[in-house]
Design goal:
Protein Transport Mog1p, Chain A; three-stranded antiparallel sheet; alpha+beta; seven-stranded antiparallel sheet; globular
């Protein structure tokens, strides 16, 4: 008779574990939709007012001022520049017509929702920049998980769509939410020119 309480305890443990596993499997589907990361209290990512900018001339037919010293990664469609969570990314593709805020809402934003993490679009508008008419999409998203800590942070992003002679450029500027980069982002988006 002394063995029965141990046996009952064992079966209760197995049942509890199975219940926890079933609950874990049942909630896996609901985790597919990533939740927005919390905004940092003292976000890293302010580009200093003393930052030096240099002119980057791309083989894809554009130039842009970017922060000196940032790590550059060349791709077959453009380049990206990064410093911690701050990034500047430019890609070029063929396009039949110039984008508008209306077409961007129907096309670009749909693609963005599929490719970025926990996206929340805040504004879509037509803007006029030194390179000509463009579209600005302002949105928030999560960073990719840190390779070591698995931590994510909330990012603010400005995406500019430029168009010239059958080519569309996408300029993405990203930084931790709350970082003060308004002037620096304006400098970079205004500096974009087709060569």
């Amino acid at each position: 008779m002394k063995g029965k309480p141990k046996l009952q305890w064992f079966f209760a443990l197995v049942a509890t574990s199975a219940c926890g596993l079933a609950l874990s499997l049942a909630t896996t589907g609901s985790l597919a939709q990533e939740q927005p990361a919390a905004t940092e209290r003292n976000p890293p990512g302010d580009i200093p007012d003393s930052q030096v900018f240099i002119l980057y001339r791309s083989p894809f037919g554009f130039s842009l001022k970017i922060p000196e010293g940032w790590a550059r990664t060349d791709r077959t469609d453009g380049a990206s520049f990064a410093d911690k969570y701050d990034t500047v990314d430019v890609s070029i593709a063929s396009a039949a017509v110039a984008p508008t805020a209306e077409s961007a809402a129907s096309n670009e934003v749909v693609a963005l929702m599929k490719s970025a993490r926990a996206v929340k679009v805040l504004a879509i508008k037509d803007v006029h920049l030194p390179a000509g008419a463009a579209v600005l999409i302002v949105y928030a998203s999560n960073s990719a998980p840190n390779a070591v800590t698995n931590k994510q942070i909330r990012l603010e992003n400005n995406r500019y769509l430029y168009y010239h002679a059958g080519k569309r450029a996408i300029l993405d500027l990203s930084a931790p939410a709350g970082a003060d980069n308004v002037d620096q982002w304006k400098l970079m988006s205004d500096s974009f020119h087709w060569n």
